[in-house]
Design brief:
Shape: globular
Number of helices: 5
Distance between the termini: 21 Å
Number of strands: 7
Helix content: 40-55%
Strand order of the largest sheet: 5-2-1-6-7
Largest sheet: 5 strands, parallel
């Protein structure tokens, strides 16, 4: 049975629900959980001949992203703490969350990625894809998708 889950969360209701179910399963099988949040990188956009100037500095943006990561991870950590499940949390800056999720799972020695599906269906799911679909197609670690 699986002994260490990586549980990516983005703060959405669905990902929090997935974290809740991951913690419940971890408690049942005696596994530990590593929660993960992928922080966005500082956006740099250029339009025409000049750059679009953002009033937020890269440092301020990083500070805001760190605070957001702490708040989102704290919600998931509370679930594990309340259930008596061993846990840790990791966040990383990445513009490609699916790659960061896989890298975090490998780095933490996880044997399962337990993540939410954001439910994209039909043509929009086919054209746009989702981070979950990308993790499913690129990960060598098993992925359990919560719907």
């Amino acid at each position: 049975m699986f002994k260490h889950f990586l549980v990516p969360t983005d703060g959405s209701q669905l990902s929090l629900k997935a974290a809740q179910h991951a913690v419940s399963l971890a408690r049942e099988v005696g596994a530990k959980v590593t929660f993960f949040f992928s922080k966005p990188d500082y956006p740099v956009a250029f339009y025409g001949e000049g750059a679009l100037i953002d009033p937020t500095t890269p440092e301020k943006f990083a500070e805001i992203a760190d605070r957001q990561a702490q708040e989102i991870l704290a919600q998931a950590e509370k679930l594990a703490r309340d259930a008596g499940v061993e846990f840790s949390s990791v966040s990383e800056v990445s513009d490609l969350p699916y790659e960061a999720i896989i890298k975090a799972a490998e780095g933490a020695g996880c044997d399962l990625i337990f993540m939410a599906s954001h439910g994209r269906r039909g043509i929009s799911g086919l054209l746009l894809g989702s981070e979950t679909q990308k993790v499913l197609t690129h990960s060598r670690i098993p992925v359990l998708v919560y719907r």
